């Protein structure tokens, strides 16, 4: 045991209290990995299980912050790594660190644990398997793992998981650090020195975004700056001879509580400490039974507390402590506002519909899927607005935050529709001609697609009946003199080129490509989906998506061609083509956005449109939000998820209301609360699950007649 207080440290830690938080449940032994999140302390008990998965099982205990058991889980094999992901709310369980490694995910909300996921080539399974994955960290939407037991130069010791934060199927990795790589020795200042990574163990994300890898048998810590980038660099610090570190933390506050697995006592210990240095490391040294403070520049060690064969380490900063950084490894339920980067969805699909006011869609029995599934289960924005008339400027403004020359009644862009503008000569010209604007030259203003690609993300737009990848014609594939695909509804095609802020041709895809996607995790980070003019509620058609035969007013099947049919056809198209993705998104950290471009020239109510967002409940709260929002707010939110600079008028927009990285409804007791409750109750009763129609009971055509009037609850706008 060390008792000296090394003068190299700018502050000396003082232990205020040291207590047993929890003892192992009956039959469980060897507490090891600890993670904290969602208001719980999660502890893994190895129980002597074989580290190659050959025999035995581990117990994972979810304690509350007072040490009371909330739930227990059992997994086959040795669960050597445990980490809470604050972005998704899942707990990752890394099994069998010395061979035949697998990954399982615990969903605390449902208390379900996934089936084991296996790693793809070059990882090897079977009797010769001798390597594994020990720990995991989450950096935005990137995931890094430490890989154990390297033997030959070039063997990976840190990899990036390419499946993202909601993995399924075969796990694919790429190496970012290998045995034999070099870096700077922080103690001696020598560069290009071999990294001490013969025994890689725990992995942490430091407050500045660096990775911290523990070399256990090496008695060292390795720092990886800008991990996974072309300018990644490494450095390391070694400890005094004989010290074997198990885990380490760089605290985010000058005071707080450490949580340690005390294997000698078969319990979990909490140590409340003040006087911490937020630039030092704090580690448990298993072979010397202590918690220590380490100067990362010199390797100098100061004793902090006595322990008994410690393993695993987590830290919760004190609310009263001086905090330099937000903690990157522990979820504290931090408040986020419109101007801060929120939790990044793995995938977002935005669907744009056409030319209907909110009160034409919400509560309409001809839209049972929209009302009975999307609005009932998702977040409906009752005070959402288009930003222009006619259609094309709205698409441009949603995609780029500006209108790069397309005629529109609302140009220059105002936040709210200017009364009387439709009567001006410019307004009439825009309404008559603006929808077909095509310069023949690609635009080059900043836009969402170009920003995503520049940030290393992916983007594609999927247009129904687009003739081919990269097609830039004004229209195609129409029947009876009508158009199906139209470029005016495809802004990314109008940015297609090789210049600044322009997009490659392969971002401009036919919708058949989306339909052929069987694994939604292969979709781009952000996708836009645009139905053709028969299916997007633009053209007046029957419920079958057909035009009238001659002047009969009915299609070839005798069904009426009117707005009721238009809405019903568009609603059915949405269910047939997007419901599978919506269901997948609810469990895969992803979102579905369905919004209309404009309200079809109704100049009396500020261009009020329907907009609803559904998906993973950790990203979006079901309900109604009555905030005044528009296309610029939606664009700012999409950009903010991925740390992109807001473009055009998105820069001055508020973004969609959000708390703790989650899109939120009005509080039941606050603004819009009464409307929220009324609408939700109405949807629950009117569109309850039923086998009679998609997402709810579909009123028969005979019962509804040819009426185009929807069943209204209330005007959802002021």
What does this structure look like?
- This protein has 718 residues and is an alpha+beta fold.
- It is built from 10 helices and 42 strands.
- An 8-stranded mixed β-sheet has the order 34-31-35-28-36-38-29-39. A 6-stranded mixed β-sheet has the order 16-15-20-19-18-17, with no helix packed on it.
- A hairpin with a 2-residue loop joins strand 41 and strand 42.
- Helix 2 crosses helix 9 and helix 3 runs parallel beside helix 8.
- The longest helix has 23 residues.
- The protein is elongated and about 90 Å long.
- The N terminus and C terminus are likely disordered.
User: Roughly what fraction of the amino acids lie in strands?
Assistant: 25-35%
Strand order, biggest sheet? 34-31-35-28-36-38-29-39
Q: Termini separation (Å)? A: 71 Å
What can be said about the biggest beta sheet? Answer: 8 strands, mixed
Shape: elongated
Helix share, percent: 10-25%
* Helical segment count: 10
Question: Which blocks of ≥5 consecutive residues have pLDDT under 50?
Answer: 3-9, 320-341, 411-419, 668-678, 689-718
The counted number of beta strands is: 42
Radius of gyration from the alpha-carbon trace, in angstroms: 29 Å
- What's the pLDDT, averaged over the residues? 83
* Structural class estimated from helices and strands: alpha+beta
């Amino acid at each position: 045991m060390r008792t000296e207080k090394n003068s190299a440290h700018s502050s000396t830690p003082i232990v205020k209290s040291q207590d047993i938080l929890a003892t192992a449940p009956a039959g469980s032994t060897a507490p090891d990995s600890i993670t904290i999140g969602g208001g719980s302390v999660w502890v893994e008990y190895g129980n002597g299980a074989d580290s190659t998965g050959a025999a035995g099982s581990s117990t994972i205990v979810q304690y509350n912050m007072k040490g009371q058991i909330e739930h227990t889980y059992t997994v086959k094999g040795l669960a050597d790594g445990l980490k809470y992901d604050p972005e998704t709310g899942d707990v990752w369980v890394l099994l069998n660190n010395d061979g035949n490694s697998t990954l399982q995910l615990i969903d605390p909300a449902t208390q379900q644990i996934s089936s084991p996921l296996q790693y793809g080539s070059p990882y090897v399974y079977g009797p010769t398997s001798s390597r594994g994955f020990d720990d995991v960290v989450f950096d935005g939407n990137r995931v890094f793992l430490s890989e154990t037991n390297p033997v030959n130069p070039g063997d990976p010791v840190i990899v990036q998981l390419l499946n993202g934060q909601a993995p399924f199927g075969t796990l694919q990795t790429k190496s970012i650090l290998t045995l034999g790589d070099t870096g700077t020795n922080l103690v001696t200042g020598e560069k290009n020195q071999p990294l001490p990574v013969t025994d890689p163990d725990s992995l942490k994300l430091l407050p500045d975004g660096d990775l911290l890898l523990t070399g256990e048998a090496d008695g060292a810590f390795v720092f990886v700056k800008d991990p996974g980038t072309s300018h990644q660099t490494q450095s390391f610090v070694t400890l005094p001879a004989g010290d074997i570190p198990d885990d380490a933390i760089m605290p985010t506050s000058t005071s707080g509580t450490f949580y340690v697995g005390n294997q000698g006592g078969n319990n979990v210990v909490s140590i409340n400490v003040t006087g911490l240095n937020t630039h030092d490391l704090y580690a448990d040294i298993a072979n010397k039974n202590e918690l220590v403070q380490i100067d990362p520049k010199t390797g100098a060690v100061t004793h902090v507390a006595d322990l008994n064969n410690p393993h695993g380490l987590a830290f919760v900063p004190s609310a009263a402590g001086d905090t330099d950084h937000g903690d990157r490894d522990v979820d504290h339920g931090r408040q986020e506002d419109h101007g801060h980067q929120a939790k990044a969805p793995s995938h977002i699909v935005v669907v744009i519909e056409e030319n209907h006011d909110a009160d034409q869609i919400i509560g309409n029995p001809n839209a049972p899927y929209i009302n009975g599934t999307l609005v009932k289960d998702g977040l409906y924005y009752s005070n959402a607005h288009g930003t222009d008339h006619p259609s094309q400027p709205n698409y441009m403004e949603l995609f780029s935050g500006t209108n790069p020359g397309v005629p529109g009644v609302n140009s220059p862009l105002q936040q709210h529709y200017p009364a009387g503008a439709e009567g001006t000569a410019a307004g009439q010209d825009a309404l008559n001609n603006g929808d077909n604007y095509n310069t023949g030259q690609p635009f080059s203003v900043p836009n969402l697609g170009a920003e995503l690609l520049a940030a290393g993300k992916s983007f594609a737009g999927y247009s129904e009946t687009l003739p081919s990848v990269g097609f830039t014609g004004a229209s195609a594939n129409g029947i009876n003199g009508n158009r199906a695909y139209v470029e005016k509804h495809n802004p990314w095609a109008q940015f297609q080129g090789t210049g600044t802020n322009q997009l490659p041709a392969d971002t401009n895809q036919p919708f058949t490509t989306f339909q052929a996607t069987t694994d939604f995790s292969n979709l781009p980070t952000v996708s836009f989906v645009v139905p053709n003019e028969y299916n997007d509620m633009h053209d007046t058609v029957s419920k079958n998506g057909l035009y009238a035969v001659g002047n009969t007013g009915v299609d070839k099947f005798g069904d009426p061609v009117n707005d009721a049919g238009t809405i019903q056809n568009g609603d059915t198209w949405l269910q047939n083509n997007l419901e599978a993705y919506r269901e997948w998104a609810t469990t895969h950290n992803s979102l579905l956005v369905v919004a209309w471009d404009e309200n079809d020239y109704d100049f009396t109510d500020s261009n009020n449109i329907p907009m609803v967002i559904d998906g993973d409940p950790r990203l979006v709260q079901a309900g109604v939000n009555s905030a005044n929002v528009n296309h610029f707010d939606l664009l700012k939110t999409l950009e903010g998820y991925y740390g992109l600079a807001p473009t055009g008028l998105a820069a001055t927009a508020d973004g969609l209301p959000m708390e703790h990285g989650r899109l939120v409804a009005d509080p039941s007791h606050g603004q819009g609360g009464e409307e929220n409750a009324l609408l939700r109750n109405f949807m629950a009763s009117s569109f309850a699950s039923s086998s009679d129609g998609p997402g709810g009971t579909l009123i028969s055509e005979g019962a509804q007649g040819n009426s185009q009037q929807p069943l209204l609850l209330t005007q959802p706008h002021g």
